[in-house]
Structure formats: structure tokens, C-alpha cells
Specification:
The complex is a heterodimer of chains A (257) and B (237).
Chain A lengths: L2 H12 L16 E5 L7 E7 L2 E12 L10 E6 L16 H16 L9 E3 L3 E13 L4 H15 L1 E6 L2 E11 L7 E8 L2 E4 L3 H6 L2 E7 L5 E7 L6 H19 L3
Helix pairs in contact in A: 2-3
Chain B lengths: L18 E5 L7 E7 L2 E12 L12 E8 L15 H14 L11 E11 L4 H15 L9 E8 L2 E4 L3 H4 L8 E8 L4 E5 L7 H29 L5
Parallel strand pairs in B: 4-5
Antiparallel strand pairs in B: 1-2, 2-3, 3-5, 6-7, 6-8, 8-9
Helix pairs in contact in B: 1-2, 2-4
Classes of the chains: A alpha+beta (257), B alpha+beta (237).
Chain lengths: 257, 237
């Protein structure tokens, strides 16, 4: 980490300023969600937050259920940190950062019970729908956590079941039936640098952070999943403040869907 | 009977699908491009020349070009494509390198690497050609000195007709003689080929004709590539 950069960022934060001219709790603008960006996916969406751009895609397939949940469909959410999107990402097997990011996005959806997996059951113990959400960053200009989580729910919102013909999926024919969503979780990541808190970090800010907290929030304003990251410990008061910020900023992201 | 009319409604057998190209679409990359042909979409990002690691791979006489072709998991016609490089992706990455190297002076960047990342969010056949075409725009956008552009398209035979830019339905066409799929890349100024593969079966005469058709089609693609670059740097004709 660049010490001078960190000093500069925390000094600016004391005056409620950031390097790109934003206030600490401002998201970059514009924030946009575009649906149906991949014709081969059952559902897809492109999310842009400032210069950060990610594409999310949903594939639906017929699977056998897991032994311990014979009456439930399968859900899987993954994020690939594509080396195309950031010069620091390397090709090859997923790094631990990519695994964490994928799991945090997955838990936001899973733990908020956004998808009622029982409704994905076709024949108990035999045949269920598998819902696989893959998120691919195109340009990582910071805050992949929130952009990927938003792209995941947007792609799910866009998803339509394909036709089943002779017990097999006919991917060429989509029905007008959407994937049943009970709630839509929104993730907001708050980062701490020095004594200041920010949302929607840039790459420079991310290289200088002390701690981060990602909070997934459902439609009723309840917290569904959280993940703390970074090397610095937080006080209870700080966590309380960060959750408060997340609850406040969640509405802005939700309004873009 | 024969193959009378193209399945997707194109009027001529030598007609390309609608093309769209843009340069500089990925801000973090040193050069980048978006290329769409029909329903096949490719992004390409170029990083470098940058230091090559591990160090033993460095060569003080010349640099290396490294290409990575990747289909996004939801970009296939059927089931989800599992993430990570499979044998097909590795081979396509390699032939992509080979089709781009002829236009680049590797001696220009000793000890260094130019990385080219190709990502496909949706495909309808012709994805390796779309990737190569996008990569060529991205290399130029990155300011890498090039002797020529590289423009790629698939040609082939569907039943009794030679066709340009096959889509998935044409590749899978089963009536009459088995189809032939011939992905080619041309250096449009020298007229030489830097990619040639073939699957299916085709006679020597048909191949010659198909390659000529590919050469003409690549000239069209070349114009679109040039325009994308000129648009980015706001240079008029």
C-alpha cells in the first residue's frame, strides 16, 4: 500500500472531501441498469456505477436436487474477476479475493431468501431447476462488491424459464414465466479509511482502506448478510454507524432497478 | 434442392451479419474494443507492454504476445459453460496469438508481455473470429505498432453453397452434404492469411473460392475496424 496516497486520502476525508470531488457518502454517477444484454442467457443485466461496469447472466438448467433438500432447487452465484477488467487481476484459477466476492454476493441472495428454492422443484427427489448466476466485470474502477450484487439481482429479475421439451431444456424457446423472487436484496459496502467512512470506493481508495463492511438489505430494511473485510478491527459504534450508512444508501441503488 | 435461402434471412451467401465496432470501451485497459457480428459479441482488452513474470520467461531480444480467449459462463447456445480455460479455450487462445503475431514486432518490447484478454458475453458461432477482430482493434487502440490490421470471419459451405459468416444454425445444418466451417483471418493490406482452420469437408476448388470470399468479407470488416478507431480519436475521413 502507498503510504502517501493513504495519508492524502485520509486528510481529504477529514475535510469531507475525496480525490474525485465527491462527498464521502456519494455514489459515482450515473448509476445504470440495462436488462437483456446477453441473448444466450436466460436473464442478464449490465450495471454501471460511474466507470465500473459489470455484466450478470443467469443460466437455468434441469438438475437433480441435493440429497438433504430433495424438494428444493439449486442456487449458485459466482463472480469471476476477469483479468480484462483490471490490470492487477491475473488469469487462472480464482484468487481468494474472487472467491470472497462471489460468496458475499451469493450470501446476499441466499440469506435474504430472495429465491424460494421450493418453487424450483419440478419432481421431488428427481428433478429441480438449477439457477446459476455468473457475474463478469468488464471494467473494474472500484466497488465491485455493490456493482456485482446489483447485477446479480437485476439478471435474476430479467430471467425467464426456458421451455422443457421431452424432459430436456429447449434453450431456444423462452416462456414468459419469471424466476420467482420473494424479495430483492441490495448490498452496500461501507469502507473505513483513517477516521472517515466512504461508500462506492475507487481503486485508489480500495488500496488504502482499513476496513470494509458489506451489508445486504432486503425489501423490508432488514439485514440479510454481512461481511467485514480489511485488516483493522472495528468498534461496535463504528459497525453501528456503517450499518446506518448502508441502510441509507440502499434506497438509492434499489431505485435503479 | 440445395441450400436456397439463408436461415437468418440474409439476401446473399457472401453477406456478413450486421456489424458494430467500438474502440476504447474499457477505461482501465491500455487499449480495448467491442465487436458485434450478428448475435456474437466480443470484448477485447490489451494490457502492456508490461513486465513479464516469472522472470525466467523474459527474453532480452523480444517480448511475447499472450492471448486469453474466454466465453462468459452464460454465453453458450445451450448449457452453462463452466468457468476456467478448457482445452477448446486454450487452443483458441493459442491460434489467436498466432493470427496476431504476424502484424506485431515482438522485438519492440524486449523482456515484456502484451496481454490480450478476449471475453464473450453472447455467442452465435464465429466467436474466435470476432475475438481476433476485436483484439486487433484493441492492439491498435493500445498504441502497439502494427504492420497491418487483422480481420477475421468464418467462411464455409452449407449443403451446396459457399457462404460467408456462418451462424450457429448454418454450422449445424444437416441436409445435403455435411457443412464445412473455415475460420480465416486476413491481413487486409497484404492479403495474406494468418488464421486458417477447417472442420467438415470441402474440395480444393471450393476451398479456393471460399478463401477468396473470405478475403472480400474481411475487407468490409477492416473498414469497420478502421472506422471504430477513427471515431475514438475523432478523425474524419
Amino acid at each position: 500500500m502507498d503510504k502517501e496516497l493513504k495519508n492524502h486520502i485520509s486528510k481529504l476525508l477529514k475535510q469531507e472531501k475525496r480525490m474525485d470531488g465527491r462527498k464521502p457518502l456519494d455514489f459515482r454517477q450515473p448509476i445504470s441498469v440495462e436488462y437483456g444484454v446477453s441473448a444466450t442467457a436466460e436473464g442478464s443485466a449490465r450495471v454501471k456505477i460511474g466507470e465500473t461496469e459489470v455484466i450478470g447472466g443467469v443460466k437455468l438448467s434441469l438438475e437433480t436436487p441435493y440429497d438433504d433438500t430433495p424438494d428444493s432447487g439449486n442456487l449458485m452465484v459466482g463472480v469471476e474477476m476477469l483479468p480484462m477488467s483490471n490490470p492487477d487481476f491475473e488469469a487462472g484459477p480464482p484468487s481468494i479475493d474472487a472467491i470472497e466476492l462471489g460468496r458475499v454476493v451469493d450470501r446476499g441472495i441466499r440469506e435474504s431468501k430472495a429465491i424460494d428454492t421450493k418453487k424450483l422443484c419440478i419432481e421431488e427427489g428427481e428433478k429441480v431447476w438449477g439457477v446459476i448466476v455468473d457475474i463478469c466485470p468488464i471494467n473494474d474502477a472500484g466497488n465491485l462488491f455493490d456493482a456485482c450484487a446489483l447485477a446479480a439481482v437485476a439478471a435474476l429479475k430479467d430471467a425467464k424459464f426456458p421451455e422443457i421439451k421431452d424432459g430436456k431444456v429447449d434453450y431456444k424457446t423462452k416462456t414468459d414465466q419469471s424466476v420467482p423472487l420473494a424479495t430483492i436484496p441490495i448490498s452496500v459496502t461501507v469502507r473505513k479509511i483513517g477516521d472517515g467512512f466512504i461508500v462506492d470506493s475507487t481503486n485508489d481508495e480500495e488500496s488504502a482502506i482499513d476496513a470494509r463492511l458489506t451489508v445486504a438489505i432486503d425489501e423490508n430494511g432488514e439485514l440479510a448478510a454481512m461481511q467485514k473485510g480489511g485488516d483493522v478491527a472495528l468498534t461496535i459504534e463504528e459497525v453501528d454507524k456503517m450499518v446506518g450508512i448502508a441502510l441509507e444508501k440502499e434506497k438509492e441503488l434499489r431505485s435503479k432497478l | 434442392m440445395g441450400y436456397e435461402k439463408r436461415i437468418d434471412g440474409r439476401k446473399k451467401f457472401e453477406e456478413l451479419r450486421p456489424i458494430e465496432a467500438k474502440a476504447g470501451v474499457i477505461k482501465r485497459a491500455d487499449g480495448s474494443a467491442y465487436f458485434k457480428i450478428g448475435k456474437t459479441v466480443a470484448y477485447a482488452a490489451v494490457y502492456g507492454p508490461r513486465d513479464l513474470y516469472p522472470k525466467f520467461m523474459q527474453n532480452p531480444k523480444k517480448g511475447i504476445l499472450r492471448c486469453h480467449y474466454n466465453m462468459m459462463p452464460f454465453s453458450g447456445q445451450g448449457d452453462r459453460v463452466r468457468p476456467g480455460a478448457n482445452r477448446r479455450a486454450k487452443e483458441i487462445s493459442m491460434i489467436t496469438e498466432k493470427s496476431l503475431i504476424p502484424v506485431i514486432n515482438l522485438e519492440d518490447f524486449p523482456n515484456a508481455v502484451v496481454d490480450v484478454f478476449i471475453e464473450l458475453p453472447q455467442t452465435d458461432a464465429g466467436s474466435r473470429c470476432a475475438g481476433i477482430t476485436a483484439a486487433s482493434i484493441a492492439l491498435a487502440d493500445a498504441g502497439i505498432i502494427m504492420k497491418d490490421m487483422v480481420s477475421a470471419v468464418a467462411v464455409g459451405r452449407v449443403d451446396d453453397k459457399l457462404v460467408v459468416d456462418l451462424d450457429y444454425n448454418e454450422e449445424a445444418y444437416e441436409e445435403g452434404r455435411a457443412a464445412a466451417d473455415v475460420p480465416v483471418a486476413f491481413l487486409p493490406n497484404s492479403g495474406k492469411l494468418s488464421l486458417l482452420q477447417m472442420d467438415g469437408n470441402i474440395t480444393k476448388d471450393e476451398l479456393k473460392k471460399a478463401l477468396e470470399m473470405g478475403k472480400e468479407a474481411c475487407k468490409e470488416i477492416y473498414e469497420v475496424q478502421k472506422k471504430a478507431l477513427k471515431d475514438k480519436y475523432q478523425l474524419g475521413e
